[in-house]
Amino acid sequence: MKSIQATTYSIDFQDKGYEQLSNLIERKKYSTLFILVDENTFEHCYPKFIQNFKTTKSLEMIKITSGEINKNLETCIRVWNAITELGGDRKSLLITLGGGVITDLGGFVASCFKRGIDFVNIPTTLLSMVDASVGGKTGVDLGVLKNQIGVFSNPEMVLIDTEYLTTVSEREIKSGMAEIIKYGLTYDIKLFNKIKQYKSLNISDLIFRSIEIKNNVVQQDPKEQNIRKILNFGHTLGHAIESFFLESENKKNLTHGEAIAIGMVCESYLSSKLLGFSFEKVTEIKNVILTIYDKTTLLKDDFHKIMELLKHDKKNINGQVNFVLLNDYEDYQLNCKVPVNLIESSMEFYNS
Ligand code: NAD
Fold first, then answer.
1. Residue closest by Cα to atom 27 of ligand 1
2. What is the pLDDT of residue 132?
3. Which residues line ligand 1 (CB under 6 A)?
4. From the alpha carbon of 128, which atom of ligand 1 is closest?
5. Taking the CB of residue 116, how many other CB atoms lie within 10 A of it?
6. Which one, of 161, 96, 164, 166, lies nearest residue 132 by Cα?
7. CA–CA separation, 242 and 143 (whole Å)
């Protein structure tokens, strides 16, 4: 697969990726190499990585505990301490080997350590391959509030090796599908049509096209002033729903993609109510999503808590929630204001 060129770095696939990583290390003459893993990527991905990665330099491993709940500043402090104790300096390189939690947190840790060291993303889940590892957003959550602390910072390269997906659970693969559906609905409907045939998908093609789309959008608007906001379709309500389930001790956590999928159903409904997006298409989106994901019930009693969490969305300005909605497939409107009662109706629509 050919490489994809981003603004300051490239996204390289399979063997070419490992070759490029070795070249980068040779060229930049790093003092120390660190690799950030969690217990799952240590077990399933690190052995594959070591098999493919050729270097004479030693590699210092830093392991954190998996899960969104650990994507926070406390974990960052632990990683910064570990890098310091292991002799890290400004010429160190941090390789992140993991899902979006590892690439988001690792990128942030690297970007702040001694005012910034280089990092390389090696995403190991579908979601992190198609979305989190590309585009330069790094950061962590503040309590349950998603991605409140972070910086835009680009990796030196991204290495995509689809072999890592062989150990990813079906639930996590489906989580990644949600971001592909988002690219389909907002940018390239062919992707959505492919997802409809959920059982016979060419995953490498979907990954390549998704990265191409994300990279195109980010290149036009790296700091999310304009078109990059389309990548938030489904995420405004989705993040609030994800946070709500994270903070509810008696409820099973949703994966990022499961929450975004609910968010896309609700925001498609809002699109139909406010922008005249065809209701037939809303129904189609809901049906496709409910074939892939188990139905989650959003209790009416919990709506106000979700609405409360919406107030913290990063796109809000002057306390006003801003949605990205659809006029049609591949045709969107940014900065849409939505009345509270309609947001609640959209959750009722998801439940119905
Ligand atoms: P994740 O990182 O929590 O990974 C999911 C689970 O899979 C974890 O338990 C992990 O240990 C395990 N895992 C990872 N790779 C594995 C492998 N190859 N085999 C077996 N198990 C493996 O979750 P995710 O879905 O990858 O990422 C979600 C995060 O990404 C969220 O925090 C979200 O906010 C963030 N995100 C960031 C961006 C961005 O632009 N920066 C975009 C989208 C999502």
1. 100
2. 97
3. 38, 40-41, 44-45, 66, 68, 71, 98-102, 104, 124-125, 127-128, 131-132, 135, 137, 146-147, 164, 167-168, 172, 175, 256
4. 26
5. 12
6. 96
7. 12
71 backbone dihedrals φ, ψ, rounded to 5° = -85, 75
User: Would strands 331-336 and 323-328 be described as parallel, antiparallel, or unpaired?
Assistant: antiparallel
pTM confidence score: 0.95
The Cα 186–Cα 329 span in angstroms is 6
Tokens of 346: 């959209």
Supply the pLDDT for residue 343. 95
Residue with tokens 């919406």: 310
Query: Which residue(s) pair with 152 in the sheet?
Result: 137
Structure tokens at 220: 């036009």
Type and span of the H or E element at 276:
none
| Length of the chain (residues) | 352
pLDDT given for residue 181 in this prediction: 97
Rounded to the nearest whole angstrom, what is the distance from the C-alpha of residue 318 to the centroid of ligand 1? 31
Q: Which residue has the tokens 């009662």?
A: 341
User: What pLDDT does 329 receive?
Assistant: 97
The span from the CA of 211 to the CA of 229, in Å, is 16
Residue with tokens 């009722």: 348
- Over the chain (352 residues), what is each successive 10-residue block's mean pLDDT? 95 97 96 98 98 91 96 98 97 98 98 98 98 98 92 98 97 97 97 87 94 97 93 96 91 94 98 97 97 94 92 73 95 93 96 94
Which of 318, 150, 166, 321 minimizes the C-alpha distance to 235?
321
